[in-house]
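INTERNAL AUDIT FORM
Audit reference: QA-55
Scope: verify that the stored structure record matches its stored sequence.
Auditor: D.O.
Record contents follow.
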Amino acid sequence: MATLVGRYIDSYCSRCRLTLAHVVLYEVNGVVSGVKCRTCGSEHRHRGPAPVKKNEIPAVRRFGGRLITAPKPVRPEANRLWELKNAATVPDVAVWDYGMTERYEQGDVIAHPSFGRGFVESTTMDKMEVLFRDGRKLLAMNRSGTALG
């Protein structure tokens, strides 16, 4: 069996953080173990190609010079529950437009300008938890003197 010592091999360089050409320094039982980076000269163990990134959703995007956080992925269980509730809703149900000054009760169906149709799941004096297609949101309600105008 031919030895690979002295030959070039592509390996992930931990210093350069790229997959680059390396020189094989030594083998153990026919397997490449030590390499030297031809770009930066660092010696390390052979790592093969670059590690695959698990999360493909960017944490932050740039738009017009401003930083915008990426939307959270939709939780499938909330989406399925919303689909079930939406399918079970009768066609002539009262759908209330959302307003911070209005008072809602558990079981009400609301129309939010940003989140769309939602189902009120629980309420307190001035807050409510609403199930939207994108997930559950905590919204303000029953606020006096905050009318937009």
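Auditor finding: record pair retrieved intact. The longest helix spans residues 76-88.
Action required: none
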